[in-house]
Amino acid sequence: MKILIIEDEEQMLQNMKQTLEKEDYLVETATDYDSAFSKIGVYDYDCILLDISLPGKNGLEILRELKSRGITDGVIIVSAKNSLEDKIEGLNLGADDYLPKPFHMAELNARIKAIFRRRKLKGSNQLKIGNLSIKIDSQAVSVADKELTLNRKEFDILFYLASNKDRLVNKSSLAEHVWGDHIDQADSFDFIYSQIKNLRKKLSTNNAEVELKSIYGIGYKLTAS
């Protein structure tokens, strides 16, 4: 799961980043309006953690811009401004949740997962396609109740493609979502080919009722077989 934290308080930013990375999230950061949109305009996120009190244009202005651009990434406002007016305005502008500071990191993690379940899994804790089952909380994958052993990147690739079932995902989008914005420094997508090859073999060997299709020169699509 890919998270963007927009927060200008360095200690809070690092606390959230380190905590969420321990939960195996891919975390990127921004500290103001300009740095936020340099990422939002290029990458997709499962959830954006947004502080209201930012230098220059505040978090509510970022929400307005997201709405005007038609960007539908999940948003949780995390703010020390625990006012009813800000909460109502933020939710009306399209935020999914509002968490006042200070808060426990465990609660933040739970709210992120709740948003992901609502948006991607229709409220469930797992994604099922044929005899394939993917549990997001435990990051467990099974085929016909037999658990598969996947490395972290194999799981992330599988879950991203499965949550976009029957949709063509181009190689750059997949790389950015699984490896983060540092993917820009990569010379090729050979590392994706390797992970896809291993993942496809594990699924086939265990008779998974899904197919990882390669669309030559473009990307990949997961379909029910």
Automatic annotation (TrEMBL):
Which superkingdom?
Bacteria
Which residue intervals are the DNA-binding region? 124-224
What protein name does the entry list? DNA-binding response regulator, OmpR family, contains REC and winged-helix (WHTH) domain
Q: Kindly state which keywords UniProt assigns to this record, in alphabetical order.
A: DNA-binding, Phosphoprotein, Transcription, Transcription regulation, Two-component regulatory system
Domain named Response regulatory: residues: 2-116
Enumerate the spans annotated as OmpR/PhoB-type domain. 124-224
MF-aspect GO terms: phosphorelay response regulator activity; transcription cis-regulatory region binding
| One example of a Gene Ontology biological process annotation | regulation of DNA-templated transcription
Keyword Phosphoprotein listed:
yes
Q: Does the keyword Transferase apply?
A: no
One Gene Ontology term, aspect cellular component: cytosol
Q: Which Gene3D superfamilies match?
A: 3.40.50.2300, 6.10.250.690, Winged helix-like DNA-binding domain superfamily/Winged helix DNA-binding domain
PROSITE patterns xref list: OMPR_PHOB, RESPONSE_REGULATORY
